[in-house]
Amino acid sequence: MLDKVIVGSEEWCSFPDLGIPTIKARVDSGAKTSALHATNITTFEKDGENWVRFDINPIQNNLKAVIHCEALLVDKRVVKSSSGYREQRYVIKTKLEIGGSFWGIEVTLTNRDSMGFRMLLGREAMSGRILVDPEQKYLLGQPTNEKIKEYYYNELPVTKGLRIGLLASNPELYSNKRIMEAGEMRGHEMHFLNLKYCYMKLDADTPEIHYRGGRILNDFDAVIPRIRPSMTYYGCALTRQFEALKVFALNNSAAISQSRDKLFSLQLLLNNGVDIPTTGFANSPLDTNDLIKMVGGSPLIVKLLEGTQGKGVVLAETKKAAESVINAFKSLNANILVQEFIKEANGKDLRLFVVDGKVVAAMQREALPGEFRANIHLGGTASVVRVTPEEKRIAIKAAKAMNLKVAGVDIIRSSKGPLLLEVNSSPGLEGIEGATHKDIAGEMIKAIEKNFKWK
């Protein structure tokens, strides 16, 4: 018992292996797990093992002092916070120093901007080592303001690049990790901004965007919106707010909104001279027979307007099947498109990746045997393909018509020539980078640099 360190409910400690000289911790024996504030969390491989890289602002309410940390990843687990919120967190093991004693502890990484302390010391880390006097604070002493200034303010890192935010929902998604990595490799300050943690202040004099914990996000040079379909409305509203603050959006909110409306986007493309498969749209079940006839009869494709990544797309091989599918969708009050089936494509289509008016990569997608639609998310395969000048022209024209700086343009080869299927404003990078071995994430960062004439 005499060997144990006696601490109060709040103490200062350090993590020498992470390069954190001092940080204030909440000592909480009611919490099982220890937690450390972390942002911009990404995983990587080092010497055949999984590691995690993250940033920490060790002083509460101060974003200028930043420490870049790396640690061996030991686990990934679901942790229940004091508010009852369940969150999946990365777990690292690192050396803790408190009161002159050192030992290894497990720590989970999470954004603690909304909490009072950057560090929470839980009972697993204290077991056998610490006695807590909850009525006391700082029994082990406190660093002076001069010492904190010496640690964190004398040699603040100088950022020469742009400050870029990635607006998305999942930091673990390949595409998001690659964009963060590409930006950092080109010398920029990258921040992953989870859409659900952002909220806005609408005001004529001082409009603002806040992040979890009250952090204000008005000082970004650019944002890269990668908005999942379920977050389209809120994500576009958030992008508009950044635009109102004169922050450059790689894809602007209006372009993203119209790209998500399949019917409007097809009408817009046709008005700009881009050919598409013959397509019908109707609202009354009484029109079903003529609707089928209008697109050339069966077989035909039936699509939900809100569908993505191959979901909500059905091949109706006979007229009877087409009537059943169309009427079933309409009975659910779902908006649908009916489109001619391009049999000669043989389950293949093209994805052309357009960045800033240029086709930077292209691949051919091929459906699994028995499937009619090429889709990597559903098990299809991707391969390098040589596209024709006409196919490149269509892709560039489509992206321009939609006013998208970054677009995944899907084209199908038919007996009538290349036809455009759809334009995606948040195209995935994994399939096309894997197939072509091109640095598409880097091309996206270059497009931002070009806007700022940054070298």
TrEMBL record:
Keyword Nucleotide-binding: yes
Keyword ATP-binding: yes
UniProt-listed Pfam families: RimK (PF08443), Rimk_N (PF18030), Zn_protease (PF05618)
Domain of life: Bacteria
Annotated InterPro entries: Asp_endopeptidase, ATP-grasp, ATP-grasp_RimK-type, ATP_grasp_subdomain_1, Peptidase_aspartic_dom_sf, Rimk_N, Rp_bS6_RimK/Lys_biosynth_LsyX
Keywords assigned: ATP-binding, Ligase, Magnesium, Manganese, Metal-binding, Nucleotide-binding, Protein biosynthesis
Cofactor dependency: Mg(2+); Mn(2+)
An example molecular function term from Gene Ontology annotations: ribosomal S6-glutamic acid ligase activity
SUPFAM superfamilies associated with the record: Acid proteases, Glutathione synthetase ATP-binding domain-like
Domain ATP-grasp: from-to ranges: 266-449
Cellular component, GO annotation: cytoplasm
A biological-process GO annotation: SOS response
Family recorded in the similarity comment: In the C-terminal section; belongs to the RimK family.
Name under which the protein is recorded: Probable alpha-L-glutamate ligase
Organism: Flavobacterium limnosediminis JC2902
